[in-house]
Design goal:
Elements lengths: L4 H13 L12 H20 L1 H8 L5 H26 L5 H9 L17 H18 L8 H29 L3 H20 L11 H6 L7 H19 L9 E3 L4 E3 L5 H11 L3 H14 L1 H27 L1
The structure holds 3-hydroxybutanoyl-coenzyme A (3HC).
The site of 3-hydroxybutanoyl-coenzyme A has 30 residues, from helix 2, helix 4, helix 6 and helix 9.
Length: 322
């Protein structure tokens, strides 16, 4: 006898509660599928758009070593985007549809990539803080309930660790350099600190998806828990650099065993998410230009694939004729 949707959903949740991995061909509630398409495609968008702030400095890196590290990092981000688009496709959405949603501004990507990278020190701050935040947000995702997402995250997190370390090393070099170089590092920290805290999403109390995502083990920790972990880990790193985190309310709380920190300006966050950040227009224009400029490459690849297919069919016909 056919099971009711309620019975199927109960069985599905029991699988999640047992810590089982959900695979693309398994039965899943439509809402589970939809929220994974939403989150993983937006994650992929973030990786691809996230290449732009750093690409700005590849041609201006101060040494060949810095240039090769930055090139490798930006190339990694492209790969992360492709793994994640592939994971999302297993849920029944096409790559072209995801690209169309990104290029038309309908789909989101991380707010953090709508800030400008003004000096070389920003390459340090982005690696240290943004990739540092990404690691904290993404390590729990290696245990997320949807198999393809969890497996993609294992590889992504390994590469993010290199990204964070190369960024921190840039900051360390600047902080050990001249006064001007240390001031550049402090200026970059001042500009990237608060947007990095916003990366973790709105407060749990205002989060649309966190409660359900925790039940489905899509999220293993909440936005606020991960944000707190980031602050606790990053403050001592800033102390080693000799830099001051731009938050007068940041102080250790003996009772809780965490750092208390100041109010985040959520109006700035929602302004950026709604497309009114410092670089939103430029990021979307750059993505659309790259898509248009790459049309001939896609056409050539498709023409080659069609020719290969035609030759294969011809060979099979010849074999039949004998
Ligand atoms: N930027 C843009 N939109 C954001 C956001 C952010 N930083 N944080 C939240 N939002 C959006 C959500 O997408 C949601 O809108 P939607 O319903 O239209 O999708 C709304 O704000 C409500 O937020 P929620 O907290 O309810 O949303 P989520 O449960 O999806 O949580 C998240 C947001 C924590 C970013 C979660 O989606 C997540 O963990 N995603 C996977 C990791 C990821 O995407 N990281 C982004 C950075 S990737 C990166 O840093 C690459 C590295 O190489 C540098």
């Amino acid at each position: 006898m056919e099971k009711s949707i309620a019975e199927l959903e109960a069985q599905f949740q029991a699988r999640i509660d047992r810590g089982e991995s959900i695979e693309p061909k398994d039965w899943m509630p439509e809402k589970y599928r939809k929220t994974h398409i939403r989150q993983i495609s937006q994650h992929a968008n973030s990786e691809i758009v996230g290449m732009l702030p750093e690409a700005n400095w590849i041609t201006r890196a101060p040494t060949l070593r810095r240039k090769t590290a930055l090139l490798a990092k930006v190339q990694d981000e492209a790969g992360h985007g492709l793994y994640l688009y592939s994971a999302t496709e297993t849920l029944g959405i096409s790559r072209d549809e995801m690209y169309e949603k990104l290029h038309s501004g309908k789909a989101k990507y991380s707010s953090i990539f709508n800030y400008p990278t003004l000096t070389w020190a920003d390459m340090g701050a982005v690696g240290w803080l943004v990739d540092g935040a990404a690691i904290i947000n993404q390590v729990p995702l290696t245990r997320t309930s949807f198999g393809p997402y969890a497996r993609a995250m294992v590889r992504v997190c390994k590469e993010e660790s290199f990204h964070q370390r190369q960024g921190y090393e840039i900051m360390l070099t600047l902080c050990k350099g001249t006064e001007v170089q240390k001031a550049m590092a402090q200026d970059a920290l001042n500009r990237w600190w608060w947007p990095s805290l916003m990366m973790f999403g709105p407060p749990d109390a205002e989060s649309t998806h966190t409660a359900q995502s925790m039940i489905w083990k899509l999220k293993r920790k909440t936005n606020d828990e991960l944000r707190q972990l980031f602050v606790d880990i990053t403050k001592p790193q800033a102390d080693i650099l000799g830099l001051t985190i731009p938050d007068p309310d940041l102080k250790w709380n003996e009772e809780t065993g965490h750092y208390d920190f100041g109010e985040i300006d959520w109006s700035e966050f929602w302004q950026v998410v709604k497309g009114h950040g410092p670089m939103n227009k430029q990021r979307l224009a750059a993505r659309n230009k790259a898509w248009d400029d790459g049309e001939w490459v896609r056409d050539a690849a498709l023409a080659y694939a069609d020719k290969q297919e035609a030759m294969k069919e011809e060979k099979q016909e010849l074999k039949k004729v004998g």
